[in-house]
Each structure stands twice: as structure tokens, then as C-alpha cells.
């Protein structure tokens, strides 16, 4: 199964010190060193067999050693890419660390991907081995592999069994059980010693993110990039005092943020990662887990605010007045004008009667609610902050480890995305684009030198910078993002969606002549469509056919026929017959706003 060795980019550092300032050169090396330090400390908590279960650091390392030895026995070699697809669970973490510990490269992929999406990632990455969470998912990945060159190895976290409605595995491809890998003879001490020799510049993972052309690109993140993220936030976390406290994890582990922060960064700071059972269990989990840190996309905070307001509406008039007054005075403390004498006297009472109860519903010991993945509306963050909940906004990209900046609970400027992390340089180019430098920056896009050259190129000072594609400004050391330069959509849930891909699929249907999709900062994707001549009555069927080929996050939630075609004459088409997307979005902003509701 040996493939081309993944590139290693080591940067010079002083003796005894890494370029990142980290005491470790690799992610597995960091985990192994911490496990030696406190083997009995809880690392992961997860729901299984009707109860919360815990995996301790020492047991985690032993499981990693067994799975790593099994992968080697199966022929996985340094530089080989291994696709990892599954829900948040401890086997995911074990597999990820095992892959990296033997010098291979993890390719995390969403469970919601279509077969075509999986086929593209398999083909582009050259992955010949897949670890999947369930037999049904394994069967889908085998089908994708059949269209992309095949597989040599398929491992399933759940016990293998029939997958109803799924095609059988290709002849000669066996579905291996996790129990087989977990029981393979291993030498944990030897693996730990090997991990200490992994260079910080070795490629750790390929994170696939959508580009403007629709085909996801593999972001090459070396160990150095994610270790730099860890060093960049360590001071913040130490000041928060989170060691020994739980972190409630919502985002999928294939998400670049959760992969870095949930798998490595927060555990390394002594936090126990608790995998949520889903949004429907949220209220109960806040009370049962009492998390110190929660990270989520803005959509979750929208849902929480709606639920809180619905509960307030059910209360009596005195309770509603107290809540509204607590909210109003909290916002005045944030935005001014200053509270008057009477309001200052009332505020401690509001804190006891309202804000303490709100904090109690979130477990009572929250130190940070972190929002990322998409723009956080200042009105939304103001709602939580005014009620005493420390909601802070951060900013990042997969291409940068992925965390670039974050606000501080004690210095929270909610209309910004905060100051850059320690070790991160940021500047604004003459055209307004945000540029970033530092050890957190990717090595480039896998097998895509043109895209790499576009993203990593000289800035105004002649040095190489990551061109983020976001337009913004830096004032008083804090970054504010004002627009997106790159032409793809980031939904309210933080999912990246390529409009070019969706519009191309829609216009490939005979019933649809022109299409523009939208959804930046919204819960889902909507579309304006121009029907082909005489095809108005059949457009719904065309949209349904397209949706059937798309992943959940890409599907068209609502659509409307445009009042007329996009033409050169009305300014909505270029002379080369390309739709002016921004002009269409501006022209029909009111129509789109109605579709979002």
C-alpha cells in the first residue's frame, strides 16, 4: 500500500526548542508525553450502552498502539493517506493518532458527503485505506472507491454486518472489524519513542475544503501548524483555568476546527472532551456535564436564543419584565450610555434573579462559549453577553491550522474577531484582503500547485503570506472581517458550499436556463432560477433531481423563479455570458430575504 512519501517541511529552530515554541514536534508525541504524565486522568467521555463512558489517557495510548501496529501489519506505510469517516467517538481519536504515529496522513471526511464527494477525495488524495464508523458507511465508501481506483483496506469501528439497502463490497475487499485491530500485538513504548522523532514539518492531515470551482481541495497541514495553534491559545486557556474541567463537543471531528481543538488542543490543556449526543439533548447535557468551554457555529446560538425567548414568553408578566430589563441593562453596559444611579442599584438584583438562573441553565461554570465557522451577528452575541454568558467570537481557516484570532472573555469586542493568536502576523493588503503569516499556515493544497501559488504568495513586503480571501481591517490590534473576496458561501452552520458547483448542476437540467444560489451567513441555501422556455411547470422536479445528488448542507432549501432572465442589457450578465452573481444578489436582496424566512 506504500505511496509517495508526504512532504516534510522542517523549519530551523534553536537547540531544544521547536519553531512553534512547542516542547513537542508532533501531535502523537504530545499526546503520548501527556499520557505518561497522567495516565489515569479522564480524556474522553461518550454515551454508549445507555450511560456515559470514560476513556482515560493511559488506555487511550494503549489502544493507539494496537491500532497503529495493525495498520502497519496491513501495509500502511509512512506517507500513505488514510481516509477517516465517522461520527464523534473515541475510536475516531484513536484512529487519527494511530495513523499519524506511524507517519501516515489522515484524511478526515464528513459522513454527510455524497458518494461522488467521497470518490473525489479518494481519487485526489490517493487514499487506498479507509476507516469508517459503520458497515453502511463502509459500503458507501467502497462504492465511491470503485469509481476512483479501488481500495486495499477497509476497517469498520462498529461490528461488521449486513448493510440493508447498500451494495455488497467489491470482490476481494474484506471489511475488517475494529476488534481485530484493537487486539493486534503492539509495543506501546516503542511507538511512543518513535513519535518523539516525527519532525514538526511532516504532513499530518489533509483537510478537504471547497474551492470556487466546486471541487474540494486538500489543505496540507503539518504537525507544526496545529502545534502552533496550541501554543497560540495556551496563555488564554491557562488564564481561564480550564484544567480538569469538561469541554462539550458538538462539531464533527472531520471539521478542521474540531480536529485541531477537540482532538488535540483542549485535551493537551487538561480538559476532558465530552461528545454531545445531539442538539435535542443540549439542555440536559449542559446541566449534567456542566461544561467550562463550548464551541459551536452561530446557528446553534440562534437556536438557543430562540428557545430562551420562547420560555420567557410562557412566564408571567413580572418575570418577563425582569428578563427584559436584565437584557436591556446588560446591553447598555456593553454599548452605552452608562447606567444611571437607579439602574446601577437594580443591576445586582437582576444578576441574582435573572443572570444567575440563565448561567445555571448552562451548567453554572462556563468560562467561554466560543463561536466560529461563520460570522456571528453582534446582536446575537450581545444577547448572551448581556445575560452574563461569555460568548466570544473567533476567526480562522482550514489553511491556517485553523485558528487565526479570537476575542478574550475579559476583553471581548464582539464586533471584531479579536486579536491574532500569539505567533501570528496579520496585515491588510492594499486591496483590503487579510493576509496571515506564521507557523500555523498550511504547506499548500495537495496536488494543486496553481491553487497553492494563488493562496501562498508575496505580500506588499515581499514575504510569503496566506491570502485569506477575506476583506477586513485591523484596528487597535483586532481584526474585523467585512466581506468575502472568495466566491463561495459559508452558511450559518459554518459549512462551505460552492455556488459554482450548485449553479452548474442546476443549469445542467433542461428545465433551468439560469441559476444563482445564495446563503452566506444563512441557515441554508436558496436559489433564484430562470426557467428554460416553456419549462416553468417542471422546475420543481428539476430542483428535486439536483437535490438528490447533493449532500445535506448543499441542498436547495427554497427557490423562486426570477422575474426575468439575466441579460447583458439589464446588467446581470457579462459580455462573455457569465452571470454577475453579486449584481443578482443585490438586485434581488428583498426576494432572497423572503426565501430565508
UniProtKB/TrEMBL annotation:
GO molecular function: ATP binding; long-chain fatty acid-CoA ligase activity
CDD domains (UniProt xref): VL_LC_FACS_like (cd05907)
Organism: Roseicella frigidaeris
Catalysed transformations (reactions): a long-chain fatty acid + ATP + CoA = a long-chain fatty acyl-CoA + AMP + diphosphate
InterPro entries associated with the record: AMP-bd_C_sf, AMP-dep_synth/lig_dom, ANL_N_sf
Domain of life: Bacteria
Residues making up the signal peptide according to the UniProt record: none
Pfam families: AMP-binding (PF00501), AMP-binding_C_3 (PF23562)
Organism classification: Bacteria, Pseudomonadati, Pseudomonadota, Alphaproteobacteria, Acetobacterales
Annotated protein name in UniProt: Long-chain fatty acid--CoA ligase
Domain AMP-dependent synthetase/ligase: residue ranges: 35-446
Keyword Membrane carried by entry: no
Spans annotated as Disordered: 1-23
A GO cellular component annotation in the UniProt record: membrane
Keywords noted in UniProt: ATP-binding, Ligase, Nucleotide-binding
